[in-house]
Amino acid sequence: MTKSEFRYAHHPDDVKKYTTEDLRREFLIRDLFNEDQIKVTYSMYDRMIVGGAMPVNTVLKLEPTDDLKAEHFLDRRELGIINVGAAGKITVDGEAFELNHKEALYIGKGSKDIVFENGSEGQALFYFNSAPAHHTYPTKKITKNEAEIVELGENRYANRRTINKLIVNSVLETCQLQMGMTELHEGSVWNTMPSHTHTRRMEAYFYFDLEEGQAVSHFLGQPHETRHVFMKNNEAVLSPEWSIHSGVGTSNYTFIWGMAGENMDYGDMDAVKTNELK
């Protein structure tokens, strides 16, 4: 079973007038994991798709939604998947890939049959992003050991974190999709601070590994007109090209960042000084 949603893009001047309810309806993506269901949200921000698959009693096949107007989901797209649950399996055109916790799989344009399957111990939870593609690159599994690792932040600023670049052009070739995972160390709660914008690409954040009863306040908006959205475990949020994207939690957590747009340079960003945010 597949459930789909559609989200329009927004002018920053309009977002300034949004209520809390408006912000949550337009940018927050909830209920990504439901038993024996695939959920996809199609966004007009660089036509990024954010989704989740939770196979329990049956295997789940990734079918094209009406928004794609395609015979197969990846006829004109590429796909990145990160397993945020227990071990599971993804089969791509007959080839099986075992995906453990926090491992990733890139699937290139033109793949036809993508099937999600739960493992024998615990519950697999497959979080994915998809973006339009113009070329076919090979399907490839990426473990944490194969990721490009970057250590950032300091304890005194409560932002010490490990960045795992999983699906990026320094690890494997993609058309435009980039994905990675940032793990906050114990005692650290701030992510992507100092913050930045990058008008060359949009971004989506998925927060997980959050303790029961805790929350993350995700910040978005223009640097001089910031807004916030409180988020629970296993929820995602869209970040427009004109928006900052940072957050702070009531405990440490992990988040997955996914990007699509015209620029593949991870370091291409317009920094914003923390004391200039409004």
UniProtKB/TrEMBL annotation:
This is 4-deoxy-L-threo-5-hexosulose-uronate ketol-isomerase. The keyword Nucleus does not apply. Pathway: Glycan metabolism; pectin degradation; 2-dehydro-3-deoxy-D-gluconate from pectin: step 4/5. Binds 1 zinc ion per subunit. It is an enzyme of class 5 (isomerase). Transmembrane segments: none annotated. The keyword Metal-binding applies. GO terms for molecular function: 4-deoxy-L-threo-5-hexosulose-uronate ketol-isomerase activity; zinc ion binding. Keywords: Isomerase, Metal-binding, Zinc. It catalyses: 5-dehydro-4-deoxy-D-glucuronate = 3-deoxy-D-glycero-2,5-hexodiulosonate. Its cofactor is Zn(2+). Pfam families: KduI (PF04962). PANTHER family: 4-DEOXY-L-THREO-5-HEXOSULOSE-URONATE KETOL-ISOMERASE.
